[in-house]
Amino acid sequence: SLSLSLSASTMAMGLPLFASIFLMLHLSFAVSSDQCLIPAKVSKFPCPSAVSAGACGYGPMAPGFNGGNVAGGSSALFRDGVGCGACFNLKCKDKKLCNTVGTNVVVTDLTKSNRTDFLLSDQAFTALARAGKASELNKHPILDVVYRRVPCEYNKNLSVMVEKGSIKPSNLVIKFLYQGGQTDILVVDVNQVGSSDYRFMSRKFGAVWETSNAPAGPIQFRLFVIGGYDRLMVYSVRPLPADWKVGAVYDLGVQITAVAKDGCSQTAGDAKAEAMK
């Protein structure tokens, strides 16, 4: 069964052809990795400054996400930027050194290492340890873990930051912040409030989207989102004002809380093999 909850007006409907193609590409990963515990290896970012240089484009905001518990994910997790902002629970398999709760991380970067599936911030790595075992745990360059995707929870709404490269009236570059639930944003459209003329945005990289054809007036966002097994269309409640400014963050007045609830019918090894296809 699937439990879906949105804190503002949304509607489930069939996607246009281009969105359906995205859906087919990403559905198998969402199903397999969200529900199953998957074996993986983790290490730490080489230095704290690397957290702010992530491929998702969050920049200096990244170390502040989730209390600093952030991670770089493998290409199978990063998914050409679709996985940016996704949350995962990681549990270390060394019972002598690691606690049983694990830690939740937000994906903010891509790791190209073929030795690990996640690169963790210092805080996230240390959070795996049992009380009094952090020093000993940090002596291990690589840890064996199991992970699963979990809902992202924020005490704020989905927001956008207007990025450099945005030039009025029509060039608009934004990145999404604080994306909740177990969801992937696949398609983004914009229109002037009150108009039915929706204009397509393209993913520039990571969590960053752009268009050279933005409307001039207050802008509403329409997001095609996959949450679990369902497709959702989510509208921003608060528009991006006509006098938007580069570097400013704008609250969209809506949060996505879609969560898939289903049993895990695959073994962890089968799930990982499926996710890596």
What would you note in describing this structure?
This protein is α+β, with helices and mostly antiparallel strands and 277 residues long. It folds into 2 domains: 38-149, RlpA-like domain (Barwin-like endoglucanases); 158-254, Immunoglobulin-like (Sandwich), CATH 2.60.40.760. The chain contains 5 helices and 17 strands. The protein has helices spanning 17-35, 75-78, 122-126, 134-137, 268-275; strands at residues 2-3, 10-11, 38-44, 70-73, 87-92, 103-110, 118-120, 143-150, 159-162, 172-177, 183-192, 199-205, 208-211, 219-227, 230-235, 249-251, 259-260. Strands 2-15-14-11-12-13-10-9-16 form a 9-stranded antiparallel sheet. A 6-stranded mixed barrel has the order 3-7-4-6-5-8. A two-stranded antiparallel ribbon has the order 1-17. Helix 1 packs antiparallel against helix 5 (268-275). The chain is elongated and about 60 Å long. The model is unreliable at 1-34 and 263-277 (pLDDT under 50). It is found in: Secreted.
In short:
This protein is α+β, with helices and mostly antiparallel strands.
Radius of gyration: 19 Å
The overall pLDDT average reads: 84
Just name the CATH architecture of the largest domain: Beta Barrel
What structural class is derived from the secondary structure elements? alpha+beta
Low-confidence blocks of residues: 1-34, 263-277
The CATH C-level name of the largest domain is Mainly Beta
Main β-sheet: number of strands, strand sense, barrel status?
9 strands, antiparallel
Q: Quick one: CATH superfamily of the largest domain?
A: RlpA-like domain
Structurally, the number of domains stands at 2
Q: How much helix is in the residues?
A: 10-25%
Signal peptide: 1-30
Domain Expansin-like CBD: 170-252
Family: Belongs to the expansin family.
Subcellular location: Secreted
